[in-house]
Every structure is written in C-alpha cells, then in structure tokens.
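A reminder before we start the practical. When you read a complex entry, don't treat the lines as separate problems. The point of joint prediction is that each chain is placed relative to the others, so the output describes one connected object in space. Small molecules and nucleic acid strands, if listed, are placed in the same frame. In the example below there are two entries. Take a minute to note the order of the lines before looking further.
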Amino acid sequence: MTKRNELLKGFTDTIPLGISVSIYGIVYGVLAGKAGLSIFAVIAMSSFVFAGASQMAAVQMLALGSGPISVVLTIFIINLRHYLLAASIAPYLKDFSTRIKMVCAYFMTDESYAVTYNHFQKNEPSPFYFLGSGLNIYLFWGASGVLGYLSGSIIPPQVNYVFDFAFAAAFIGILVPMIKDMPVLVTVIASAAISIAGCLYIPGKWYILIAGIGASLVGYAASSVKGPAGQAALEKGEVLDNE
Amino acid sequence: MNNGMLIAILGAAVATYFTRFPLMILSGRKEIPPRLVKYMSFIAPAVLTALIVPAVFAKQGRLDISLSNHYIIAAAATILVSYFSKNMLASIITGICTVGLLTWIF
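Here is the predicted structure of the whole assembly.
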C-alpha cells in the first residue's frame, strides 16, 4: 500500500474510537469553559498537549489556582504511561526514519496506539497507518473540545454551584472503572487520605502532585505484599499511617 | 491568556512530548523495568483521587463533613452509577442532577 493509503486506512479504522473520544472532548470543553479558560487556551491545550485525562486534570488544577509548575509536573506524571505505549510500538517501526517517528510520537494516544498495535499484528507495519490513526483522534478530540466549550457557555452562571460538581463527577466516572484490584483500591484510599491532609495543611496546591506520587508508592507496596499476612495488614488499614 | 496559563500549557506540551518520543525513536533498544511499569499503573488513579476527594470534602480550605454538604451524597450516587454503568456521561449526569435536586429541596 502507498503511504497515502496507509494514512487513510489508519484514519478510517480509528473512526469508532474517535467518536467515543468526542464524548470526553465535549466534557473537557464544558469543564474548561466553567473553569474560566479562554477558547484559545482550550484549543492550545488540545493542539499542543493533546492528552485527554491530563488536560482535564490541568483544567481542574488551574481552576483551583495551582501554579504552572505543579500543573506541568502533574501532567508529566499522568502521561508517563506513554513510555509504555512507545516502547511497545517502537519495535514494529525500527526500519523507518527517526523523522517520521518523531511525528508519529506527537500524535500517539492510548486509542491510536490500541488500533495500530492491533493492526500491526496481522499487517505490514507502517508509520503512516499509525499517523493516520493519531490524526483521527487529534481531529475528533480538538473539535469536540471546542464544541463542548461553546455549548457550555449557554449554561447560566447561577447554577455554577451545581456544575462545579461536574469535575468531581467526571473524574469519578473515569476512576471507578479503574479500581479492579486491591492494590488500586489501596492507592485510592491512600490518595484520599494524603490529599485531604495535604489540602488542609500544605500551602498551595502541591498536595495533588504529592498525593499522586505518594499514593502510587503505597499502591506499589501493596501490590508487592504477598500472602494472607500482608492482606490482613492491608485490610487493617496500616497503609493509611503512611502520610 | 495570562502568563501563568501560557507557561502551564507550553510546559505541559513539552513535558508530554518528552513522554511520547524518546522510546519511540530508541526502538527496542530500551526495556522499561517491570517495577517502574507496575508503579506507573497506580499514578492515574492516585492523581484522580487527589482531585476528587478534596473537591468533595473540603470547602475553602476547611473540612466539611455534614449532610449540608450536598457534594458528599452526590459523590456517593455518582460512584454507584459509575460502578454499575461504567459510563462517564451517565456518572456526570447523575452527579449534577443529585446536587441540583438537593440544592432545590433544601
């Protein structure tokens, strides 16, 4: 197949995921508007950062008044998982130029990775397929963010108290399906404790980053604990003493 | 757009690109240690929790655990719907409607 056909195939294969990404995009746009971001900031974030959950986290942190450095560091740790995706797809693209791989990397998301990895199992790997898949998500994500921003602006400010909860509700909707085993549950409980203590006693908004890094360590420790003794210790809530 | 916002967005853009490209161009020459992979899997739930819990329980830097804090009941309803539906949109609608309803009644 030609480069152009590969690009198109990648794009069309990703349409179903693009549509589901749009729902998140609309939520992102509405929340960003409610947080007081300008339309330019909404578009700039989708164009240059281009990472779903981390953009929503950034919007919430900016709304809370977090400093730019803690926002950047928090986004960085949320997006560390990209290393896994890149490491997993790179062997398929080892015969291609660095330049095209640098471009592909910019457009890589969880969704385009999943579609492309699946495609490469049965077809000749091509960076252009990967790029087409990434561009699909890029367009759906960008456009739906703008759509959400514009439709959110018709919500009257009188109901802000109600809509402020939309952030928490959206994050709950993302978080709850992630809790599949005990170590993740332990992480969540640890983060709840650290973040509550942190927001009361640590100046600024650093508690988000501190809870993110610290609770992950607690989760990691919990996942390393083997056997009934460890489980019992966890259930007694020993991990909560950590903070 | 103010300076802080600009720095946040551009900084986040550079930081995010630095999570995307290095292992892409090193193609297979680098293996990520399994312990780091394990650790990384806990980061997203940890950060999300840190964004949710204070937003629900703390108002202006003070803890508010009482029935007059509508966010607590709404959060419980949202968790239930999210657990059974696994659907983000349904969770958001539940959350907003619960807060709206409680505000309207009380």
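Discuss with your neighbour: Chain B is about 75% helix and 5% strand. What might explain this?
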